[in-house]
């Protein structure tokens, strides 16, 4: 079912790492799609596979990793492409911004050089055109005095400014899809607010699809149209943002929402999820969340749950969803 | 019921010299902490909030006399410790401890956990080997670890467990004051709440006083009794926790509160988005340090540093506008 409007369709994505102790699965059976002009948030804690998922879309997995399934971008399967073909798309039609803007900018080149580079390579502009375009881009992402900034080096900019430069570079080729991996985690809250607003504003202006990876449910609520929750390498729940926050179905999603201290509610009492995150390669049998789950049944300890449709556009990988299924008469997959 | 005063700061300043050039001349100063006056009560948790470079960590380190204040007085249990020598500080050290943000960086990767926890006992107490071992076992259990963790190495623990080890080490000498420097910021949310609960129960049991440094206003609301807001080395607002969240007075506090993303989708937000960046602490603006980003700044804000005044009982603010 190829949707006219979807930019990205990931189906049954699995990523395994070869290690000395054997193959370790990092992502298993992840499926989701991103529409034009839509923000899809992938939420989860460390080791859940959210960053590996985004790196596979960019074709940036290390050599020790092996990906299977399909990642269709604009109808073409990225996993079937050669490195050279992917290079044509990466930075051009799909762009990415990372958590640490300092390590993703090259310290020995000026900001101007780095913003102009993709313009010359992908958009085939002349030096002079590229310069003017770069100034325009820096202006668009809200950098004051862009001509002066063009001559500066990354260390001369603050964290927020560096992230703006990264966004300018990511947008330079008018991508159809922007992947942002924890773009504001290293920034202060007042700067975070600026950057999130900027990403949403640019999405409105250009109509690109955005995949935003984060661990912060607050960021999800403020930006997402749809949300994918990941735990231990699997997508455990998917829903539109409204539904996810108002009617979460997976016990992990519920726990995640409860364990976040509320800024506005003084009566709120801390409710941690007991236990710890499983390490890749040491996954428990059955549902990976069952050792920490209050609702775990005998079945959860032996049999990995299927994905159940629990409402329109709302899926949950939890055996509890089986009862829900009766009410909605939905289908179940994988 | 006001508890007795445990620590007191009077106009404490901590400046660091900036050296430049071939001759390493002092070219300027970073005013990391610039005139902070504060009282810390027994058994309370004071939250200290601010963005990077606001001086909250330096203030915490100065409070423990890990840094010597450039100016001002620092009292602990009534004694002026601002200029005591390292030797004279010794008896105070075991009463003041610290928990760090990155528990892995604060543990020696080759040292067994038991040995790491025993070290303070060797230095500060007369306990013999057996008694020390028993004490360490007790500490491990108290922070929710097991006795058999004694012989393990740091890499065998998860982030949450490592932070528990950091807490156990801070507790080893029965301190009265613990400076917690972003103790849960590096942890995943589902684990973070566990550590916060542990801190709460330990405080109750041992009557601890926490100086809790954080940038997370959600965490602060649920753990702290009073909150101090800092910006570029200066105190902006100090209030009881309920008061601060209900009636923030300083424009910076308002902006901070409104900038936090809330887990409520589709909420119509009247967010105050501050323009501009944090100024460098080496070149803080004249007058009120916040005036360059303040939506309500007046002329006087650019010239004169606002005084630290009380606007309600226990609620202090440094602002010309309010």
Describe the structure.
The complex is a heterodimer of chains A (334) and B (322). Chain A has helices spanning 50-58, 83-89, 101-104, 111-121, 127-140, 146-150, 159-171, 189-206, 217-223, 241-246, 251-258, 298-302, 321-328, and strands at residues 6-19, 22-35, 39-43, 65-73, 76-77, 94-97, 177-181, 209-214, 226-231, 234-240, 307-311, 314-316, 332-333. Chain A is α/β, with parallel strands linked by helices and 334 residues long. In chain A, strands 6-7-8-3-9-10-12-11-13 form a nine-stranded mixed β-sheet, with helices on both faces. By secondary structure, chain B is α/β, with parallel strands linked by helices. In chain B, strand 4 (71-76) and strand 5 (79-80) form a beta hairpin. Chain B is globular and about 65 Å long. Chain B contains ten helices and twelve strands. Chain B has helices at residues 56-63, 86-93, 113-124, 129-142, 159-171, 189-206, 217-223, 241-246, 251-259, 299-303, and strands at 5-20, 25-41, 45-49, 71-76, 79-80, 96-99, 177-181, 209-214, 226-231, 234-240, 308-312, 315-318. Chain B has two domains: 5-95 and 173-262 and 269-318, P-loop containing nucleotide triphosphate hydrolases (Rossmann fold, 3-Layer(aba) Sandwich), CATH 3.40.50; 102-172, no CATH class. Chain B starts with a strand and ends with a strand. Classes of the chains: A alpha/beta (334), B alpha/beta (322). Chains A and B meet through helix 7, helix 8, helix 9, helix 10 and helix 11 of A and helix 5, helix 6, helix 7 and helix 9 of B.
Question: How would you summarize this macromolecular structure in one to three sentences?
Answer:
Chain A is an alpha/beta fold and 334 residues long.
């Amino acid at each position: 079912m190829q949707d006219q409007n979807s930019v990205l369709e990931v189906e049954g994505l699995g990523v395994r790492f070869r290690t000395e102790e054997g193959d370790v699965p990092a992502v298993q059976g992840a499926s989701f799609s991103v529409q034009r002009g839509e923000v899809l948030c992938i939420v989860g804690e460390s080791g859940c596979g959210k960053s590996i998922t985004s790196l596979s879309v960019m074709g940036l997995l290390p050599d020790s990793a092996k990906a299977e399934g399909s990642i269709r971008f604009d109808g073409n399967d990225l996993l079937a492409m050669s490195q050279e073909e992917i290079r044509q798309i990466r930075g051009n039609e799909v762009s990415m911004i990372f958590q640490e803007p300092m390590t993703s900018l090259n310290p020995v080149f000026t900001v101007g050089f780095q913003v102009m580079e993709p313009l010359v390579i992908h958009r085939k502009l002349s030096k002079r055109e590229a310069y003017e375009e770069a100034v325009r881009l820096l202006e668009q992402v809200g950098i004051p005095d862009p001509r002066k900034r063009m001559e500066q080096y990354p260390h001369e900019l603050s964290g927020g400014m560096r992230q703006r430069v990264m966004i300018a570079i990511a947008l330079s080729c008018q991508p159809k899809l922007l992947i942002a991996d924890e773009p504001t985690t290293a920034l202060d809250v007042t700067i975070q607010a600026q950057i999130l607003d900027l990403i949403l504003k640019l999405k409105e202006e250009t109509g690109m699809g955005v995949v935003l990876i984060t661990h912060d449910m607050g960021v999800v609520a403020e930006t997402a149209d749809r949300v994918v929750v990941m735990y231990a390498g699997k997508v455990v729940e998917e829903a539109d943002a409204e539904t996810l926050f108002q009617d979460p179905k997976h016990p992990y999603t519920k726990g995640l929402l409860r364990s976040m201290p509320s800024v506005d509610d003084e009566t709120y009492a801390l409710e941690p999820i007991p236990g710890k995150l499983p390490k890749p390669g040491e996954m428990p049998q059955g549902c990976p969340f069952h050792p920490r789950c209050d609702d775990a049944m005998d079945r959860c300890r032996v049999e990995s749950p299927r994905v159940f449709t629990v409402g329109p556009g709302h899926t949950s990988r939890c055996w509890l969803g089986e009862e829900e299924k009766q009410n909605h008469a939905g289908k179940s997959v994988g | 019921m006001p508890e007795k005063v445990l620590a007191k700061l009077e106009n404490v300043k901590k400046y660091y010299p900036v050296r430049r050039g071939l001759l390493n001349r002092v070219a300027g100063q970073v005013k990391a902490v610039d005139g902070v006056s504060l009282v810390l009560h027994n058994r309370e948790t004071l939250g200290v909030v601010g963005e990077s470079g606001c001086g909250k960590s330096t203030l915490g380190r100065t409070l423990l006399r890990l840094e010597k204040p450039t100016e001002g007085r620092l009292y602990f249990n009534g004694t002026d410790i601002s200029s005591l020598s390292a030797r004279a500080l010794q008896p105070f050290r075991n009463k003041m401890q610290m928990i760090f943000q990155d528990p892995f960086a604060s543990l020696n990767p080759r040292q067994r956990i038991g040995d790491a926890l025993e070290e303070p006992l060797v230095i500060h107490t007369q306990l013999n080997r057996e008694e020390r071992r028993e004490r360490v076992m007790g500490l491990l259990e108290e922070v929710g670890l097991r006795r058999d963790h004694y012989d393990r190495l740091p890499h065998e623990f998860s982030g949450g467990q490592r932070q528990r080890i950091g807490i156990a080490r801070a507790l080893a000498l029965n301190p009265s004051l613990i400076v917690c420097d972003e103790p849960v910021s590096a942890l995943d949310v589902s684990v973070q709440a566990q550590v916060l609960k542990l801190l709460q129960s330990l405080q109750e049991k041992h009557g601890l006083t926490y100086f809790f440094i954080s940038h997370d206003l959600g965490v602060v609301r649920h753990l702290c009794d009073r909150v101090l807001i800092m910006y570029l080395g200066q105190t902006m607002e100090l209030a009881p926790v309920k008061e601060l969240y209900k009636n923030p007075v300083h424009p910076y506090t308002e902006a901070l509160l409104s900038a936090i993303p809330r887990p409520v989708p589709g909420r119509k937000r009247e967010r105050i988005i501050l323009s501009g960046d944090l100024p460098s602490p080496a070149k803080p603006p004249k007058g009120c340090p916040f005036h360059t980003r303040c939506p309500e700044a007046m002329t006087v804000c650019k010239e004169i540093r606002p005084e630290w005044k009380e606007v309600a009982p226990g609620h202090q603010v440094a602002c010309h506008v309010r």
